[in-house]
## 1
Amino acid sequence: MDAFGLPSSLAKNPAIGRNLDSSLKKILASHKYDTAKQRAQAIKDYFETLSPAQQAAVAEADPSEVGNLDGVPVNIRFAANRISIQEEYQKESEYLNGLAPNDRAYKRTQDRVNTLRGFLDPRIKKFKDPKKMGRITEVEMPRQFLLFDAHFGSTGDAKASPFPDGRVAEVVGDLESAKHVAFRVPGIGNRLDDFNSFSKGGYDLAQDDQEVESPDSAVVSWLGYDTPEMGDSVDPAKAIVGGQQLNAFRQGISVNIQPKATTSIIAHSYGTLVTSKALQDGLTNINNVTFMGSPGLGTNIHSVADFHMPGTNFYAMRAPGDFVSYSEGLGDDPADFSDITRLSTHGSHAHSEYYNRDTASLDNLQRVLTGDTETLTFTHTTLDEEMIGATEERKLVAFLEQRVPPSVAAKMGADLNPIIQGIGGKNSVEIGGSIAKGLGAMHGVLNKYNMLDRVDPDDLMRELQGLSGDIAFKAAFKEAKRHGASDASATAAGASAHLAAAATFSGVTFTAGKVLELDRLQNNVRQLGGDLATGGRDMFGTGSAMVGGLSNDGRQIVGDGSELAGRLAADAGRVSYNIGDTIANPSHGFSNATNVIRSVDAAKDSTIDKGRKIEDSLRSAKNTIRDNGGHMLNTAIDIGGKSLGKGKNIAISAIKAIT
């Protein structure tokens, strides 16, 4: 208590604290249906009737409620939450001591305990001391937590951790006197056990390049909603609830900050969708909103105008290589809005470097916070200028979203996201291989979720072949220009690379097509077996035997096909590069021709070697289908109308697989 300016003289008499807490609960009950701001004001008014010692007594009596209650003076909340953190630290430390180091829960529990201990440790604050002629001074001070609830939210993996994700909010600066206040909203995967990595961005935002804190600003790192894990990151459900919680928090905290303070929301990743939902929920008393690395603001938001907030400044950041923004998995990317101010991120890259020091992104965030808009820096880069493959990733995500129901897409997100990201950002030699591998991996995910009947193999292959050619063209064009080629020569080099990529893809089309049709046949058999388990035991048994045989052949084909695809892709990439280099630099023609001949010979040898193995596996799969397929189709017809549609799909897949 003393650390936050509160006397603990009444702490030895718990009855006083309990009586005061009882009065607080009556006030809460009487304002149950008020707005968040009205309820917070009533709570603030109550605490103003108490002496500092009485305020401390209430915090001691019920720290979990007082520490998370809007309207309570912030120093009392800090003190109450410190009590809760201390209690939780002791409880979880004891639990950790009872775990074996090889227990699945050990690592996450250890991380939580270490984080909680860090919450209790003092931090070093640097500031310019007016009493010492503005000299930089360092002091130790306790960390300031505006929210703390270790048992809030969902438990992503109960075996890895028995504890829920929790909610925490930390303040850097003097919240009640600050002229500028920022609320930071994080994205997926943020939890209590890794809160310090998120909170660090708040410290960086509040400090200059010498780590000196601004006396006029306060930053709140708000992890006040149940963040999704990767698997449900394309599901907006948690964003809707989180938006309501963010709105309520902003309205409640308004009674504790200066009425004329400028306020900013800085949202990252999935947090941009949470912020979008908050703005649509009625959060209008905000001066600045910055969206960073956004996967989209919802399917109904296509411009800043859709928020109907003409008095608020809207900014967007998208760093080169930020594939979350490129995906547009949750709606339109705000960085592409025509009526938004897009800020430079120079020096930062990908999805998690916006708060890095010595970057334009952090500089601009600090300028937005303090209202220094005249020194903001801007950018207008396109997807292709930022990263070759970014446009193609966006097209691929759109292709899949048109065919897969949103409810299934939410479950598939964790599996598809790394595959799609793995296709982008490659050089011209790697593109063919990454596309070919991505083809099989994506189809495996579709098979896992029984979506092969929604995404036709031929359509997927054509889409990926086109994207592969587009990426190869852009990579070769850029490389030729880097070597000083004219636009015409660079275009010719790009066209050559496009053809080479198409040829590479065509080289594995037959093999991949058979693999995917076998995969699809297996999926249809599994679906039919599940649908008709009761009335079609005979058919299901035959189908299971067929799936088992096809699985062995399919795994062999996938292995040989993927290896062949990778080798052909590398050879074709080298061929396209040499052709492009010859166009840009004719003097290199002889050496490039020699390299082309070597690459073609290598491709031929790879095709002959792996082709025989693939042919053997396909012959085995053909025999499996021939032996079992006819009986299955006859049984499917006999079962009745429910099986006809699926039986037709099986027949089509079987015919495609053996012809």
## 2
Amino acid sequence: MANSKDNLSKYGKAFIGFDEISGNAMDSIGGYTGTLYNNPQRVQGWNGKDYAMSFNGINQYVQFNNSIVPNNSSYTIRFKFKKDTVPTVWGNILATTSFSGTANGTHIGISTNGRLSFANIKNGVNNINGVTTSIPICDGQWHDVVIFFDIENNNLNIFIDRINRASRTLQDVNITNNMNMFIGRSGGTDYLLCSIDSLEVYHQIISPIPDKYLVQHNAQYKYHNGTSWKTTTATEENFIQYGMNNLNHITEVQWQELSGDKSIVMWSDFEDKQYASVVLNKEDFTAKELLGDNPQVIYYTDSDNSQIVVETGVDPYSVYDYIGELPTVVAYTESADDIIVSTTTEPFDLYEEFGDEVEVLCHIGGETVNEADLILEANWSPVDELEGDFEVVTWTDEAPDTAQRVLEMKAVPKPQFIKLVNPKRLYGYLDDVVATDISQSYRDEARYFVTDADTSRWYVWDKESETFVEKDASTEQAISANGMKHDELNAITDKQWRTWHKKYLNIGVFLKDNPRDTIVSVVENVSYKDYLPRNTTTVSDTSLYILNTTAKIDLQLNGNLLTGVLSDDDLTRVQYRVSLNGQNYYPHDGSWTTLGSSPQIIALSFASSDIRIDDWNTVKVEFRDFYGTIDYWQNRFMGAYSGLIFKDVYGQYYSSEIGELLNYLDFGVIIAGQTTIEHEVILKNQYGYDVKDIHLYANTTNFPTGMKCEFSTSLSSFTPQPELRLNKTLKNNEEMSFFIRLKTELGATPDANGSFDIIVRADKA
């Protein structure tokens, strides 16, 4: 992982530290700005210094002016996170999406079991690439979270405090983000009570291994494990396994155990290592503690002691005292790019250099010229005294066909932002916008914006997000910084113009000239093309055809449950068949279902015995209409047990939905009169639909006399109950925890192989 300074310098896309004293949250790499809503508070940062951002979980959040998370490519996200309690509802840490039917993007949040989850949304379908960490992190402590979205290796990994806590194979790598990045919520109302600090976004995968340190002492390589010094060899494997992430834990006394010379040896897998630092902790001290209350400075010299002068401090000086009045800047680089060296000075005018009175001397070579004229033209006109807009009105008694109305004015050109008075109504898709720009200048100062009928908001094409984004056009500086240049406008393709879904088009053109005519901005005309047919259609002959449209299918796969509708716009009869992993599934012989009226409802549940558990499965639905036109729908899904499933805290299943035993809930040896420790069991809904009225109980038929089973919904305040009846709804793919223990009485009948079953029942919500 090198260190953040190295990684950000080479791969960083954004770094948001929340260390501003007040105001917006600023990104120090890409220049993105995060607007604060409802006043989230700055609190002490994760390292005990600077600031972090704290959210109340009710209405506070930050939204940036860009999605920041890369589209359709590998990336790394790292941040520091702290939350005191487990949330009662899902809350988002970071999101680039809403939850609408067409939403696309990424969200990272905390589920109701206190674990961190990552998922993508694509075309409104949630939980693509979804994964949840194996441990809860809502413990009131700061945690270092790193998420690797690795397209090249087709996997996703989440590290918490440098330990891999979740991994999965990517289901879909083509993910775009259609919302500017939120922190503390998403486009919905899923606010989160938490603190967030040091958000880092990288445009590729960084190494998960931090810089490692060993101490070289007496030709040996050593590390301190918190108790004593240990010896190892300086191999890469040993650096990774035994090397220290930092030296902060080593005390001064422990350093003194290594007598003689010592060297710090650092290992890093960062290719372009530029920064390395070692901080050795020592108790604070002052000069007074070292020198006493009355320190003396003693000099020894053979010179006359009257000539000795001792001074403290330094006289004021200028950089020119060291480099002279005409410094030379020498730049060395191996790059072939142009080198630009700039110097900065305060604004000045002629009078500051020469005083209030200036004499001009003129030398003329002509012998016949006996005087010199100096003409000073003032940069002023009576028109300058008129404030606001004005009109020039002329009157003449000449005939209209011979009258010459010409207004000539010499003035300093003023930049202007010109827009159409009436926006153009678009019919069909926009194909192209053509601007005839004949500007003559050493740099391109013309800028272009587009909008619809609302001219208070202006847009430009953003290559990164591949969409039109709103930009500030309220000032000249903002227009120059945000507007499109002529070549950028021309580079927008017809496919990109077709994403302009507004009914109107208005073009804003910013023109800027200067008095020396080195910048002349001229746009002769601006036009646009659309895909509206311009020619009429003449019907000269007609024939009657039977037009058959292909049947269509709308299917959803939730867990192992396949549901949907097969229909045909022609209202002809339809039929279908289903295959699973290349084998016939329904009907079992591979034939088609009987032709039936359209629409037909499809509902199939795949048994765990028919699918590959924890592996990819492919389901294919072929369908055809009465005329024999065939089409198909196909999808891949990760196989999992269906129904209400019991798991342990590490995600391992205890049994399948048909009662197949996969793992034991082992209480070990129980002594009569003893109450066992509580075991956490996770109940997950994998039916494909929501369930309610959950009833949990134990089948204790095989229990020995004097033993009973106790349930509780909480561990911190374990309230023993013989069974659990939960008046709640457990959503599809949602998890909940409950706790169980065994209690025995003195004199209980011994049993060497006691066992029992935990049974769960629920109704469809």
## 3
Amino acid sequence: MDTAANLALNRVGSFDWDLGTGRLLLDGPALDLFDLLPEEYDQDPGTLARRVPVEDTARLDQVVTDAVGEGRATYGMYFRIRRREGRLMWAHTQGHVLWDDDGHAYRILGVVRDATQELSHAAERAALEEVRRQQTAVVEETAVALARAVTVQDVIGVLKETRGIGRADPVSVVMGLVENNRVHVVAEGQAGSWVPGLEYTGVDQEYPMSEVVRTGELCLVRSRGEFAARYPLLWPHLEPLDVGSAVYLPLIAQGRPLGAIGLLYSVGQPFSPEDRNLLVSFSSSIAQSLQRAILYDQEHDIAEGLQTAMLPRIPPVPGAEVAVRYSAARLGRDVGGDWYDVIPLPGGRVGAVIGDVEGHDTHAAAIMGQLRIALRAYAAEGHAPATVVARASYFLDELDTERFATCTYVDADPVGGGLRIVRAGHLDPLLRQADGNCRQLPVAGGLPLGLSARFGRNDYPVSAVELGPQETLLLYTDGLVEQPGTDLDEGVRMLIDAVRKGPFDVEELADRMLRTMKDRTGEDDMALLLMSRTGAEPGPAARARTLHQYITPADPESLATARDMIREAVRSWEAEERAEDVVLVADELVTNSLVHTEGGAVVTALMFPGPERRLRIEVQDRSSGLPRRREPGEAGTSGRGLLLVDLLADVWGVESRGSGKAVWCEFVCGRAE
């Protein structure tokens, strides 16, 4: 009997490893030990590694590396081989390293043999127990990580880092969630494994995840051939990938299927009963964490959607670019009290508001909604900035709540650049200059809304600031900079640094501010309002031009002076085609004010720039009584002048101004040249 026959009889195989090409040749007995058919082996050492437990593969690699690195001629070690049915058997390998004349290892010749009889059953059991211990440890570590997962994406992130579940490391982890009787794939698995058109599959369709959702039982796929036979719809998409087996686990919590997870392996696996028990325990931990994460995501989405719906749409602001952002708290589940608003005001001005109601719950959100509407109403009535904020404070105090609110209110002239700022317990705004530098803008302030009225200190100072061309005013709530346990000033400094390094486009800058600061904070909701003045310094034609005239009942000449002022304004502003209408209507409004109110009145003429030039006449007095237009046929003579105003003016109205009112009308004077 020759040597080869003797080796084969004793279950000893030989190998020839070319270190230059990497090809590893095995003879027939060696292939039998690794339980491989000749057509299954491609002379790649990686193919053999799939038959060897991960920890044994690492030891083999280290032994060979040490032998070559130390210049030794031989090495040997025991290791385990996994047979097709899943049984582990012990083997021993002996290698002889060949060196060239330059001292480089270029080839390894050796033998591999069955060593099961050489090792005691106790040693084999100890090795198997070590494998089980390691896999159990992986499940326990994964369970700990899942306990810290908050969102569905957090759960997916933990699973993508999972190693050692099953007989080998999965090459791909796929997750699907049940949505409306469909399975929605939310984790794609390995790169290149995304299957177009299969993001959603019906629960009743013949796909593995649909099957485990439908049956509630785990699904084991032991080989590529089994994959192709059982799932012909899916297999054409998986065939090009490195997938040799898979396990699909149902994710069930409180008797309800939440979805399924698929672990795909590169080698075929038999999946022993111990493997099944381990995988079931693994899926139970995932399902519990996933249920919490889904509930959190749903509540967070509802809260953010409700909050966003309560916030206003921002109108275009001539002369400025405005960007607003709101972000719900990352760890909170309730709507918050942060808000922003941009309010059109008379004369082409706008009111910009940022505010924060104390607390982070539905009560705070309800107060925020009422307070925002009240403040908007006070501003739209034309009150001075300090009056707007003071009235909002009284309003909050009258709601019979212990909550207070902070806010900053800005009465802005975007075209001219003038800002009048009132701060009620809020953070100072930031100012980004045209050169990109950013600094805090110190603004005199008063007590928060509600507290100032409660303690009788409801006077608010007004700070006048000039916003230059290409400069940006930044208003924000403390959620953007506040982090528990750290100095608030540190957060403000980080925000200023982010603004300095950020883009000049206000929309892009707002996104950058949120991204930069949310990584640091995120435990509170946050609101942000940016107003950037556009263009260069406007010339006379671009500004809203304004003339004022005070009229007293004791001075009959003042009415004639006001009439002359309006005629001159119409002429100089090139609106002669509406001259008679404007003068007649202005005369009627002034006369009406002097006859029906006590004290004097202020006549204001304004010409607004823009594609459609509008001339506005306002008559302001100290009476809160509103004029009433009489219709034909009604008794009495007063109020009929408003019929004339309604007939000649393009639009007219009445606005409250502090304790008085202003009656106004507008005339379109043709498009600007």
